[in-house]
Amino acid sequence: MIRNKVMTIQEFLDYANMSKKERFINEIINEFKYNKQLKIACTFGLAIALILISNTTAHAAEVNTGGIDKLGNTLLYLVRKSGRWVCLVLGLINVIKVGLSGGNEKAGDVVKVLGKYILIYATLYFFPYVLDLIEDCFR
Can you tell me whether residue 23 is helix, strand or coil? Predict the structure, then answer.
C-alpha cells in the first residue's frame, strides 16, 4: 500500500541516499507498524511454522487415561440425564405458551418448538459420538 508522507528536507535526502535494499526494508518495517492484520497474520504464521519445525514427540500412548475417561463418562451421563429433564420441562412450557398464544399457525409453531428441543437433546448424544469417530480416524 502506498502512503503519502510529509518529510523534512533532511529526511528526504536520507531517503534518497538509501540503497534499494534499505528502502525495501524500510517500507516493510513501516507496513508492519501501520497494518494490524499483517502483524496478526505474520505472528500466527510464525507460530505455526515453529510448531511444524519443532521435533518434539508426544508420548500420549504411554499415559494411562482410564481414570479421566471414567470421570468424563460419568459427567457426560449426568449432563445427558439432566439435559433430558431440562429439555422436557422447558419444551413443555414453551409448547403451552405457544398453544395459549393467539396465532393462526399454532401447529407450525408447536412443531418449531418441539424441533428445537429435540435437536438440543439429540446433540447431547450425537456430538460425543462424532468426536469419538474423529478420534478413531487418527489412531
Answer: helix
Residue 125 identity (one-letter amino acid) = Y
2-15, pLDDT tens digit by residue?
A: 567 787 888 777 77
Burial string for 74-98 (b: 16+ CB within 10 Å, else e) reads: eeeeeeeeeeeeebeeebeebbeeb
Alpha-carbon dihedral sign for residues 63, 67, 71, 73: positive
What distance in Å separates the CA atoms of residue 16 and residue 6, rounded to the nearest whole number? 14
1 SS3 class: coil
- The per-residue pLDDT for 39 is 83
The three cell numbers of residue 84 are: 433430558
pTM beyond 0.85: no
DSSP letters, 62-88, are GS--HHHHHHHHHHHHHHHHHHHHHHH
Count other C-beta atoms under 10 Å from residue 107's C-beta.
11
> In 3-state terms, what secondary structure has residue 101?
coil
So where are the chain's domains? 62-138
